[in-house]
Amino acid sequence: MTATALLERLAARPESFPGSLLLTGACENRLESEARRLAAILLCAGEDPESRCDSCRRVRAGVHPDLLVVRPLGVQIRIDSVREAIAFGAGRPYEAARRVAVVEHAEQLGLEAANALLKSLEEPGHHFHWILTTERPEALLPTICSRCVAVALAGQPRAERAADWISRGFSEEDAAELAGLEPAAPENAPALLEQFRRWREDVLLALAAGISERRVAPLLLLAEALAHSEPGEARLLSELLADAAVASGASGDLLRHRAVAGEIRELARHLTPEALARAALRAADAPADNRRGNKRLHYESVLLELMGL
Predict the structure, then answer these.
(1) What was the pLDDT predicted at 288?
(2) What is the chain's Cα-based Rg?
(3) I need a labelling partner for 134 at 20 to 30 A (CA). Which of 4, 22, 144, 256 fits?
(4) Residue 292: is its pLDDT beyond 60?
(5) Strand intervals (E) in 135-249
């Protein structure tokens, strides 16, 4: 049975939905979107297959009183956040028949927080559900994984995702970029696309200043920004460098970031494809958080090496 079919079967019977579910996959936005979709089904007061009722909209916005979202504070999810979620789950629902706690980036659970979570994952109660999400299940404690029903989300082909956005009225250029971003909800797409393009322009300007103009300061500032960025934002550096590595001999249609092909080719003029490819691989291998290595120093090393320093 595919992951999609399994989730649909679970969602069709909220009364038998597992007490603790672990969603894994390569796309942060898709994990968040699927967690919210499932939470909306569990908290929906009636039959709403399109998830358009007021309850479902509030779940997607993260403001439903019977939904609690737990996120990392700094570099980890702290024990106080887990204790708050456990207390939340022990309370009576305000509106729905049950309560749901979503733990995003579960791999960032601190050791104390993970241990505090174990008993509740095993016995959450009849009216409470945990939904954990992670892009790195191998970083979770085995005891966390063993107490959850785990479902790995397969990625939808990029071309299909782009076609979906075109069907919603977006241009081909916008749809191609949204296919890589995967917004949590369609209404968030325009704002997310604008934010992504601003960030991409900032990264390209810093790379141009460092590589073309031989200025160190913009690269150090970029390394600092990358150290505090979300995984999807940090991944952009590797993608741009990989595009530059093949730009001189590739059609613009083959680049991941076709909209900025001109800027990418300008970067490629100053460095060899081998150097760019090596930097792209190193950029993609950043530590997940500062417990596993200094992220800022990692990005500084990658960027300064491009300058030959």
Answers:
(1) 65
(2) 21
(3) 256
(4) no
(5) 149-152
